[in-house]
Amino acid sequence: MNFFVDPDDVTNYKCTTPELELHILFWVCAAGKNGNAAARGLQKLLEKWKRLGRTPFAIVRKIPFLAQEMKLAGIGCYNNKSVTFLQLAKSNLDLGACSVEDLECIKGCGPKTARCFLIHTRPNQRLAGLDTHALKYLRVNGIDAPKSTPTGRKYRELEQEFLKLADKSGKSIADFDLEIWLSYRKKS
After folding, report:
1. pLDDT at 186
2. Are residues 55 and 17 in contact, defined by beta-carbon separation less than 8 angstroms?
3. Which residues contact 79 (CB under 8 A, 6 or more apart)?
4. H helices present in the chain, as ranges
5. What confidence tier does 32 reach under pLDDT thresholds 50, 70, 90?
6. Which tops the pLDDT comparison, 83 or 1?
7. Using an 8 Å Cβ cutoff, are 41 and 77 in contact?
8. Among candidate residues 128, 127, 146, 126, the one with its CA nearest the CA of residue 136
9. Cα–Cα distance, 44 to 108 (Å, whole number)
10. Sign of torsion over alpha carbons 53, 54, 56, 61
11. Interatomic CA distance for residues 107 and 126, integer angstroms
């Protein structure tokens, strides 16, 4: 299995179960981190330990001293993210059918991570992954949005504003989201 998720072409609606596992781990790594660095760090971790299993979750469950290995692979916030990795790997979630709420029950899997995973692995999702780029886009378009990802009611309010802008663009939400991410990433 190839353990690389291309952040420039992250949308894949035909993921196998192992690919879904890889994608959710990528989105966990990408929280608070550059997408390219997150993808490289995750690939480095899984490639090093691929002898332990056939799927990303099987590997994660067996890596000794997971947090330390994540640190060595360049994955930021490795103590917290190792807890998230293990909870996901042991959760028995059906990643092809789970809901935002199911994913948010995993410690460290917040609204942005859950939604980004669903937007980019399932077609026609009416969700918004409000990262710093999406929030900046909202501000540029006259919407009062914070610089960092909100939670709760504020997240849901801004999500609706983002979805309105996506609808006006005529693009799918996944394409609109990726276009914003690529555009702002190149500027920063």
Report:
1. 59
2. yes
3. 67
4. 17-30, 35-48, 56-62, 66-72, 78-90, 100-104, 111-121, 132-140, 152-169, 173-187
5. confident
6. 83
7. no
8. 146
9. 21
10. negative
11. 23
CB 19 within 8 A of CB 26: no
> Residue 118: which of 173, 77, 63, 36 has the closest Cα?
173
What is the reported pTM? 0.96
Provide the phi-psi class of 29: left if phi over 0, else alpha when psi is between -120 and 50, else beta.
alpha
3-state secondary structure of 146: coil
What was the pLDDT predicted at 34?
87
Task: Locate 29 and state its tokens.
Answer: 């790594």
* Residue 78 contacts residue 70 (beta carbons within 8 Å): yes
Phi first, then psi, for residue 98 (nearest 5°) are: -65, 160
Helix 111-121 crosses helix 17-30 at what angle (to 10 degrees)? 140
Q: Compute the average pLDDT of residues 137-150.
A: 97
Would you state the pLDDT for residue 184? 82
Tell me the two tokens of residue 172. Answer: 């799918």
3-state secondary structure at position 150: coil
